[in-house]
């Protein structure tokens, strides 16, 4: 598969270095005879690839944006294994999210009678949060409002996944990616007490 067919950009601009690197890694996975991900990667197309700086570690993470239908049909089945393979090849943290659209409050001007709940800003950002931490799960959220009025969302992840997939190392990456995509502060942690 040619790189133009795997990474589909809306404006037909040339591929960046990060996009070329991700494309090479996906082509390697697809060409590998050992990998059980060959079929899934062959069907996969990307809407965007973004590099996100993680200030806490000084590294960069790679965010892959997949069209929603492919995310639901292909990526959800192999999410954990695909991330592991890409992280091995890229030597960086990898996050895969679905491309979702937000319909604003002026939806009646766009000839829509009802705005679907899944297209609201809050719903899209909640779904994005679930995509970022996948294959782990969010078990709780708390909002902390500071004295200056700024908000911090504390996201509690499933403690069973703490040792799995080096998830504890990725907490700062999750926070940086969520901040870049939604412009909201979030702290990811594992709850100390499970009731």
Automatic annotation (TrEMBL):
Tagged with keyword Ribonucleoprotein: yes
Pfam families named among the record's database cross-references: Ribosomal_S7e
Coiled coil: none
Alphabetical list of InterPro entries matching this protein: Ribosomal_eS7
A GO BP annotation: ribosomal small subunit biogenesis
Keyword Protein transport: no
Keywords: Ribonucleoprotein, Ribosomal protein
Molecular function as annotated in GO: structural constituent of ribosome
Any single Gene Ontology cellular-component annotation: 90S preribosome
Protein family: Belongs to the eukaryotic ribosomal protein eS7 family.
Name of the featured protein: 40S ribosomal protein S7
């Amino acid at each position: 598969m040619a790189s133009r067919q795997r990474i589909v950009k809306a404006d037909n601009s040339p591929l960046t270095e990060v996009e070329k690197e991700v494309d090479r890694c996906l082509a390697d996975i697809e060409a590998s005879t050992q990998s059980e991900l060959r079929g899934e990667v062959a069907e996969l197309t990307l809407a965007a690839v973004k590099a996100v700086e993680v200030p806490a570690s000084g590294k960069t993470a790679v965010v892959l944006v997949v069209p929603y239908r492919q995310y639901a049909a292909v990526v959800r089945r192999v999410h954990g294994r695909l991330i592991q393979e890409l992280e091995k090849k890229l030597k960086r943290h990898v996050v895969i999210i679905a491309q979702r659209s937000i319909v604003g409050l002026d939806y009646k001007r766009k000839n829509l009678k009802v705005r679907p709940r899944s297209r609201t800003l809050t719903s899209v950002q909640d779904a994005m949060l679930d995509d970022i931490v996948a294959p782990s799960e969010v078990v709780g959220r708390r909002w902390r409002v500071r004295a200056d009025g700024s908000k911090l969302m504390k996201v509690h992840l499933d403690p069973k996944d703490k040792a799995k997939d080096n998830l504890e190392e990725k907490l700062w990456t999750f926070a940086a990616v969520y901040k870049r995509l939604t412009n909201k502060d979030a702290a990811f942690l594992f709850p100390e007490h499970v009731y």
